[in-house]
Amino acid sequence: MSRFLFVVPPLTGHVNPTASVGGELLARGHDVAWVGHPGTLAPLLPDDARIFPAIDDVVEADIRAKRERWLALRGMAVLKFFWEEFLIPLGHAMVPGVSDAVALFGPDVVVADQQALAGPLVARNAGLPWVTSASTSAELVNPLRTMPKVDAWVRDLLHDFAGGDIRFSDRLVLVYSSAALVGEEFGDEVAFVGPALAHRVERVEFPWERLTGQRRVLVSLGTLNGPAGERFLSQALEAVAGLDLQVVMVAEPRPAPPNVLMLPSVPQLALMPHLDAVVTHGGHNTVCEALAHGLPLVVAPIRDDQPTVAAQVVAAGAGVRLTYSRARAADIRSALESVLDEPEYTAAAELVRESFLAAGGAAAAADRLEKVVAG
């Protein structure tokens, strides 16, 4: 049996795929550990998961504060802040903890999230093979390729940090999507394994008895907060008022129509089989979890990888895209009625679902990781 160390940032959407793949490896008898922020990791991993600290609560609180400032930015300031204030400092902060974890755990392979730059840096310095866990497929297509100066600036930052571009392993990149959805071809090191959903732990309570027999829609903006989020949610509430469906909205309590069940958090994966459609800002995990259940989407992307993910959904015919900053209640209602009432959206989502099933999920990812150890 082999030893696998997952290196992850303190972001739920980045931990979740590793929880699934790690769970599959554990089920096969391998030794598995995670290194990151224990407070973020513990609720998302099995009770007996082995966790090494690389981020303490103070650093995690600073990251959350920076994320809130990042959400208020626009244009190129978003990218500049993301790299200079978040990604590179996070990499530096995690290096000591990741180094300690490697020394104590002795992994055969390091599996590093694409935003946990300390993982490949430490693995390379220790002479260990490392693999990328690509929690979003957007960066694979290099959205900066049309902006060569910006792309060169990012590569310079990576060179200063690690002596080169370490975002993606040349040995193996696990992508939790399918080639059919991403729509581009890559080298043999890129493995489209589909969403990794098995072995996931969700500890959020849910009032299942309050679900009605109506069609059901999830409205979720992920971890988004701030005035922009409030505006969209208000418009969404107006959009669904009076419609013959039940809406589960992930938000803090506020006045809502009687057909809206408002909750601060939900067990999203467990809820998916009970839904008919999803309204989202385009987070990669939410989109792929919905499509893995054949659910059509209304996607209103804001920043980061979300426009790329939304474009994938539209190109697949599995949803409708809205302009987040300008979407009004009438726009949201129209888009929602389209994906619910026009069967071609569900049919397209089912095709994506089939491509995900064929990709193999956590089991396929574990297969590929075992091959890395085997050489």
Could you explain how this protein is built, in words?
- With 375 residues, the chain is of the alpha/beta class.
- The chain folds into two domains: 3-194 and 360-374, 3-Layer(aba) Sandwich (Rossmann fold); 208-357, Glycogen Phosphorylase B (Rossmann fold).
- Helix content is 46%, strand content 15%.
- It has helices at residues 12-27, 38-41, 57-71, 76-105, 118-125, 148-162, 179-182, 227-240, 268-271, 284-292, 306-316, 329-341, 343-359, 361-374; strands at 3-7, 31-36, 50-53, 109-113, 130-134, 173-175, 190-192, 215-220, 245-250, 260-263, 277-280, 297-299, 319-321.
- It has a seven-stranded parallel beta sheet, sandwiched between helices. A six-stranded parallel beta sheet has the order 10-9-8-11-12-13, with helices on both faces.
- Strand 6 (173-175), helix 7 (179-182) and strand 7 (190-192) form a beta-alpha-beta unit.
- It is globular, with a radius of gyration of 20 Å.
- The chain starts with a strand and ends with a helix.
- The mean pLDDT is 93.
Provide the descriptors you would attach to this structure in a database record.
single chain; 375 residues; alpha/beta; Rossmann fold; 2 domains; 7-stranded parallel beta sheet; 14 helices; 13 strands; globular
CATH superfamily of the largest domain: Glycogen Phosphorylase B
Tell me the number of strands.
13
**Gyration radius from CA atoms, angstroms:** 20 Å
For the termini, the CA-CA separation is 14 Å
Name the beta content range. Answer: 15-25%
